[in-house]
């Protein structure tokens, strides 16, 4: 069982925000009290889905702790994560005379969190914001660490900034409102933590799969807590992704290429799953993983309902798309390889042929 429902994230050893893991929105007002928001304006940023599900409840909670509450919503989906949407939000904030003492709240999944965070980072050179993630993927990954960004000409997260939230407030009850496929997609990032550095967590996930897929509250809180702890440790050691933090990109280089070429018809966590299989295969080809470990990774991902292969894309186009990845450095990809289950490292020597072999493997892996 988890020891706490709160994790404190530090920046240069100074505590900067808490991750609160709750089962409702009812205690959110305490975070507003800490920020002394009475007398300040608050804008709740959401998409069309979270607007229908949660916006009214959150407005009711927030209105007693602010001078003015308004909302900004946009159509749900990755296609809205653009500078055009940010411009519309800038316009609303400007017309409503939001200043640097005011607050934004990102109510939604990764797209909402990334877009709201980027707006907060750049409006008036920085305004406070809170993450209220509503999907599994955003709870365990994108809401934590201060990375914000939007897509540019379908290149994922190519425009962004580091901007730390004032709080991450997780309401696990939101998970039961998700379409099953959206919920399952989040396990791509969860399983990633086990493969990167926490083999005990990886084993625990396999042992508790049925409870997790059945939304067992105790299992969910344990999973989210342990995932957040894993993310906390990495982002604290490398807050601006200058080194170690890159290991969090396991599966993302090829995953992002798949995501783009499939025109975002696959969810991010699904693409990460596919990308991790490709990375595992490249690791296997280098003798870093055994055949049994490669099969175990595939079987574990599949058992959670995640895809381990992809159809309808060209292998060479996929490799070419990896060259547009923001993780390129001096013309070389910072690729994440595995050394056994639960240990990863950054490698910048992965060749185009190895990438092609990895992509061909996920194209035929059925």
Describe the structure.
This protein is α/β, with parallel strands linked by helices and 366 residues long. The protein folds into 2 domains: 6-177, Rossmann fold; 180-364, Dehydroquinate synthase-like, alpha domain (Up-down Bundle), CATH 1.20.1090. It is built from 15 helices and 13 strands. It has a 4-stranded parallel sheet with strand order 4-3-5-6, with helices on both faces. The mean pLDDT is 94.
List keywords for this structure.
366 residues, alpha/beta, Rossmann fold, Dehydroquinate synthase-like, alpha domain, four-stranded parallel β-sheet, 15 helices, 13 strands
Low-confidence stretches: none
Helix/strand/pairing category: alpha/beta
Give the spatial strand order of the biggest sheet. Answer: 4-3-5-6
What coarse outline follows from CA principal-axis ratios?
A: globular
CATH architecture of the largest domain: Up-down Bundle
User: What kind of sheet is the major sheet?
Assistant: 4 strands, parallel
The secondary-structure element order is EEHEHEHEHEHEEEHHHHHHHHHEEEEH
**What is the residue-mean pLDDT, rounded to a whole number?**
94
Distance, first to last CA: 37 Å
How many domain regions? 2
CATH C-level of the largest domain:
Mainly Alpha
Say how many strands there are.
13
Number of helices: 15
CATH homolog superfamily of the largest domain: Dehydroquinate synthase-like - alpha domain
The helicity comes to 40-55%
Please report which band the strand proportion falls in: under 5%, 5-15%, 15-25%, 25-35%, 35-45% or over 45%: 15-25%
CATH fold type of the largest domain: Dehydroquinate synthase-like, alpha domain
What oligomerization state is this entry in?
single chain
């Amino acid at each position: 069982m988890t020891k706490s429902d709160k994790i404190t994230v530090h920046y240069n050893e100074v505590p900067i925000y808490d991750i609160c893991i709750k089962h409702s929105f009812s205690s959110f007002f305490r975070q507003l009290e800490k920020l002394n928001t009475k007398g300040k304006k608050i804008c709740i940023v959401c998409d069309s889905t979270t607007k229908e599900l949660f916006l009214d409840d959150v407005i009711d909670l927030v209105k007693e702790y602010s001078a003015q509450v308004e909302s900004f919503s946009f159509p749900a989906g990755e296609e809205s994560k653009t500078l055009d949407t940010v411009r519309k939000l800038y316009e609303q904030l400007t017309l409503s005379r939001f200043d640097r003492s005011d607050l934004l709240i990102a109510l939604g999944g990764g797209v909402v969190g990334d877009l709201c965070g980027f707006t907060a980072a750049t409006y008036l050179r920085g305004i406070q914001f809170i993450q209220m993630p509503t999907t599994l993927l955003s709870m365990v990954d994108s809401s934590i660490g201060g990375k914000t960004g939007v897509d540019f000409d379908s290149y994922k997260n190519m425009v962004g900034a580091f901007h730390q939230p004032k709080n991450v407030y997780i309401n696990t009850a939101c998970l039961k409102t998700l379409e099953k496929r959206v919920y399952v997609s989040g396990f791509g990032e969860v399983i990633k933590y086990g493969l990167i550095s926490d083999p005990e967590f990886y084993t625990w996930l396999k042992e508790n799969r049925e409870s997790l897929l059945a939304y067992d509250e105790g299992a969910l809180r344990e999973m989210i807590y342990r995932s957040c702890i894993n993310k906390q440790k990495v982002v604290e050691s490398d807050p601006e992704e200058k080194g170690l933090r890159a290991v969090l990109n396991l599966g993302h280089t090829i995953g992002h290429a798949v995501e783009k070429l499939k025109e975002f018809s696959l969810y991010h966590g699904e693409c990460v799953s596919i990308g991790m299989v490709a990375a595992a295969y490249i690791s296997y080809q280098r003798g870093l993983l055994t055949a049994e470990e490669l099969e175990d990774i595939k079987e574990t991902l599949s058992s959670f309902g995640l895809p381990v292969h992809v159809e309808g894309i060209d292998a060479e186009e996929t490799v070419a798309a990896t060259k547009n990845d923001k993780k390129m450095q001096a013309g070389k990809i910072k690729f994440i390889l595995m050394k056994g289950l639960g240990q990863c490292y950054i490698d910048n020597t992965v060749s185009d042929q190895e990438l092609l072999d990895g992509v061909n493997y996920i194209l035929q892996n059925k």
